[in-house]
Amino acid sequence: MAKKSLKRTSLRDGAPCFARAKLDEVLNSRENCIIGFLDETSPQLNANTQRLRSFSKALVKKNTTRLKANTFGFYAISGNSIIDFKENSKKEAVCEFLKKIRKKNPDKPIIIILDNLSHWANKTREFAEKLDIILVFLPPYSPDLNPIEFIWKSIKREISPLLIKTLYKLKNVIRECFNRFSKSLSYARKLLMGS
Q1: Does 82 fall in a domain?
Q2: 84-129: per-residue pLDDT in tens?
Q3: Please, are residues 181 and 71 in contact by the beta-carbon 8 Å criterion?
Q4: Which residue from 20, 6, 18 is spatially nearest to 134, judged by alpha carbons?
Q5: What is the domain extent for residue 25?
Q6: Is 73 contained in some domain?
Q7: What is the tally of structural domains in the chain?
Q8: Which spans in the chain are helix H?
Q9: In-domain check, residue 130
């Protein structure tokens, strides 16, 4: 793996109004490296995001199954996207997921853009550096700068009306949706076009 001198950075440096400019700078360097967005979520079946309009009393079936799947996703603009399920979001689980990202994207340096969650401990940052992965942290409360958030929203909308009874089936549906949605760059189009 060729080492590039890419500096670890943060979109939090300076005022939030400069976050967009820094993100554009990272996105423009995508020819020499793999760029993607990382986030985790816990889709659950009892969160109903379906809307219903009816002129009469509607019959609504609601899933009361208490299943949820702690999910890590890497939405790659260049390179290969990946999804995985972990028991928790502790630093060990994050490091394991970073290893899987590197294994699926072996040849170039990787820039991962992510929110600043508390589980991004120093151990995680050091581990990423050993894997030639640069972590770029988004400013707080800026989900619009992380297009994987829109993939999660789409997945939750898809699973909401389903009556799934096992965690195995839930994970398979989430994986299938993620793989389908992550093939499209439309979720990142606004960032890529600079609007």
Answers
A1: yes
A2: 999 988 888 999 999 999 999 998 889 998 887 655 678 888 999 9
A3: no
A4: 6
A5: 9-45+67-193
A6: yes
A7: 1
A8: 19-28, 91-104, 122-130, 148-159, 167-182, 189-193
A9: yes
Residue 163 in contact with residue 63, Cβ under 8 Å?
yes
Query: Tell me: the pLDDT tens digits for 62-77?
Result: 666 678 889 999 999 8
CB-based contact 46:66 (threshold 8 Å): yes
Distances (CA, A) of 137 to 8, 35, 68, 117, 195: 10, 13, 26, 9, 20
In a domain, 162, yes or no: yes
Q: What CATH number did the domain enclosing 74 receive?
A: 3.30.420.10
- Asked if 9 contacts 22 with a C-beta cutoff of 8 angstroms, the reply is yes
Structure tokens at 84: 């995985």
Q: Which residues pair with 111 in a beta bridge?
A: 35, 134
